[in-house]
Amino acid sequence: MRIARFSIDGNVAFGAVEGEGTVESGGLVLDIIKGIPYTDFELSGTKVPLSKVRLLPPVLPNKVVAIGRNYAEHAAELGNEVPDVPVAFFKPTTSVIGPGDAIEYPSFSNELHHEAELAVVIGRMCREVPRERVKDVVFGYTCANDVTARDAQQREKQWARAKGFDTSCPLGPWVETDLSIAAASDLTIQATVNGEQRQLGRTSDMIRSIEDLVVHITEAMTLLPGDVILTGTPAGVGPLNVGDEVAVTIEGIGTLTNKVIKRG
Q: Which are the contacts of 202, defined by CB distance < 8 A and separation ≥ 6?
């Protein structure tokens, strides 16, 4: 099931996406969900065309835990070695935006990069999750763009500003809940800028698996329903400029599209 979060007439709700097509092509409708989707829920039967609503970030995470250098070719393209343990960092909730929202080019950077990523959405409160239970805490998957001020990342020892600035974490367009961990672990992932392909890889190229990352992160902290794990980016990251349209597409999930604007 594809679960979207949306606003219509000033109201915010979750809905199950039905039909065939894309956000842009039309043909999709939302069956409004009674309540929130992390527990047992019912579909209301009230349906609204997706074209009549504004899609929001599919979740409002308490925290986004991101993993760096989880694809060997990406680490190499930036002159880095694969770390011995996963490199984790946070992106704040204020960095999260949804499909169609603008990425604001930060004033402190002259080198903004796209990073297409598979995002894991957590469905229940969990801590110290054993590997065999990871499947029980994953709600689903969505597309993410770990937008990075590369020059700031290179000159600052901490990545907080480079990867945590406002609008640096597009998520969407919805959460796909029907993918098993095995299926999510071998999907095509790509990024295009103005229709030109920049990144193309498979989630099977990740150094640490989805299970590895959930186990590693929950050894240290409690994850809450709606929290998001960004699993790293394949090779091919590159510059974004004001006016560019960047799209992240993941097989079996959908396409997340955002435009870059000047902050101001």
A: 186, 187, 188, 189, 234
For 23-74, write each residue's pLDDT tens digit.
877 789 999 999 899 988 899 999 999 999 999 999 999 999 999 999 988 8
Same domain, 144 and 205: yes
**pLDDT per position as a tens digit, 152-206:** 999 998 999 999 999 999 999 999 999 999 999 999 999 999 999 999 999 999 9
Does residue 184 contact residue 203 with C-beta atoms inside 8 Å? Answer: yes
Considering the domain architecture, whether residues 7 and 91 belong to the same structural domain is answered as: no
- Could you give the dihedral angle defined by the CA atoms of residues 158, 161, 167 and 171, in that order, rounded to the nearest 10 degrees? 0
Give the phi and the psi of residue 91 in degrees, each rounded to 5: -115, 125
Global pTM exceeds 0.85: yes
- Alpha-carbon distance of 84 to 68, in angstroms, equals 12
